[in-house]
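Example for tutorial group B:
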């Protein structure tokens, strides 16, 4: 036992995060392979099970089989548990057990929890974990009650409650899984695109889940104790608002006359569904309109929004809103000839700027490389493949409808993309490259000028 603890202590936070997600995914895949998980009581092939488990744990939503028509109640329960684990992070769930059993939380566990929340230090991490747990229960509970009432008339009390709970958790965790396949396989929320209550409830859950846990606490402190917003919260809220509003306007304009998407809806429903599309592309994955019928410019806009994603320390994926803000402001500072990068009267460190640039460059490299590989294998349109690849990497789950028809190699690539996107491309890189902080090179080489631009 002591030996195992010593091994764990020697592992970096990045390696433990990677191994933790792998173990959860493998356990989920094993359960999904069992006959009890399928409606037909048959063994599910390993690829379908591991793809579904990865998609659920990485809160993505891409699927090879329809969640309602293929998986049994047990299988759907496994999926929603994986979504909850993946959305909150397994370290948060470990904290739940420790707090409930009144066990002392070790410093290593505090460091891992801080890493999962994107916090720089462990100070106040236990209180933040409590906020996350209670906040999640409250938001998902309210969402489940509202959605249950929306489904009870159609599915009865038990069926309505089951769907209300499932979709509330899936929306809050930005997963995009649905169990409405009885209205048509892979239909998502298309049959509910005229229900304002369903759309806005799901949108609110997506938005809250995508803001980030530390932002919740800052908003709570602002309301209750009149504390000021910190820089992180200001960036998250301002960038998120800008992206949602600009996405809404552009989606509304691009798809207004498209009869297969917004064109056949009333003006009120057009507004609701354009706003929903803008919100859901922020890594949620629910579809209220047919994604295969989108115009090419709308698909490209969706790709951009999916790539950006939600905010750090949240249930969302993508490169994150704060990363985008830092990169853009850094570029503006260079153009203006400023020596420092300042945001809201605060200076951003060079290390943080370099980290943001690394995230953007690595993210673009992974997406473009994967797209080119799949395009060389498959016979689908380039934009559809780019859409699917970005959706996987940004853990969105929106689909152009090609995922079930992809070859084995392409499906494996999507599995890897979902994993990279949820755990974090930098985290995985550090886990693979760095042995420990003590092995980092301490030599500084002389500077020499090069020409750029």
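The residue assignment follows.
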């Amino acid at each position: 036992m002591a030996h195992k603890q010593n091994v764990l202590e020697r592992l970096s936070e990045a390696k433990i995060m990677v191994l933790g997600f792998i173990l959860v995914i493998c356990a989920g895949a094993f359960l999904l392979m069992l006959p009890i998980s399928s409606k037909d009581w048959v063994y599910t092939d390993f690829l379908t099970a591991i793809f579904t488990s990865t998609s659920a744990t990485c809160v993505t939503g891409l699927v090879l089989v329809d969640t309602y028509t293929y998986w049994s109640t047990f299988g759907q329960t496994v999926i929603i548990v994986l979504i909850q684990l993946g959305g909150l992070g397994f370290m948060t769930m470990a904290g739940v057990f420790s707090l409930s059993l009144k066990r002392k939380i070790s410093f290593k566990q505090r460091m891992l929890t801080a890493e999962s929340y994107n916090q720089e230090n462990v100070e106040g991490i236990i209180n933040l974990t409590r906020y996350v747990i209670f906040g999640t229960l409250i938001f998902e509970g309210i969402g489940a009650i509202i959605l249950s009432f929306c489904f009870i008339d159609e599915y009865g009390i038990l069926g309505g409650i089951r769907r209300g709970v499932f979709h509330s958790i899936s929306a809050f965790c930005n997963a995009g899984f649905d169990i409405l396949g009885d209205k048509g396989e892979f239909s998502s929320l298309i049959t509910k695109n005229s229900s304002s209550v369903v759309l806005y409830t799901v949108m609110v859950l997506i938005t809250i889940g995508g803001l980030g846990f530390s932002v919740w606490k800052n908003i709570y402190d602002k309301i209750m104790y009149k504390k000021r917003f910190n820089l992180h919260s200001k960036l998250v809220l301002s960038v998120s608002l800008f992206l949602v509003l600009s996405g809404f306007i552009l989606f509304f304009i691009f798809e207004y006359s498209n009869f297969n998407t917004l064109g056949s809806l009333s003006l009120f429903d057009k507004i609701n569904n354009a706003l929903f599309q803008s919100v859901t592309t922020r890594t949620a994955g629910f579809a209220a309109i047919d994604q295969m019928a989108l115009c090419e410019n709308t698909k490209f806009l969706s790709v951009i929004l999916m790539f950006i994603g939600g905010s750090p320390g949240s249930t969302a994926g993508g490169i994150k809103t704060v990363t985008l803000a830092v990169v853009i402001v850094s570029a503006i500072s260079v153009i203006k000839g400023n020596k420092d990068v300042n945001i809201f009267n605060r200076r951003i460190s060079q290390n943080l700027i370099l980290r943001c640039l690394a995230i953007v460059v690595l993210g673009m490299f992974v997406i473009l490389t994967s797209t080119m590989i799949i395009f060389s294998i498959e016979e689908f349109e380039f934009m559809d493949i780019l859409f699917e690849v970005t959706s996987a990497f940004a853990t969105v789950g929106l689909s152009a409808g090609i995922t079930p028809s992809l070859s084995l190699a392409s499906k494996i690539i999507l599995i890897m993309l979902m994993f990279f996107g949820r755990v974090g491309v930098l985290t995985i890189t550090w886990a693979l490259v760095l042995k420990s902080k003590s092995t980092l090179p301490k030599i500084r080489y002389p500077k020499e000028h090069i020409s750029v631009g």
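Residues 369 and 380 are 16 Å apart (CA to CA). Compare this with the pattern of hydrophobic and polar residues in the output above.
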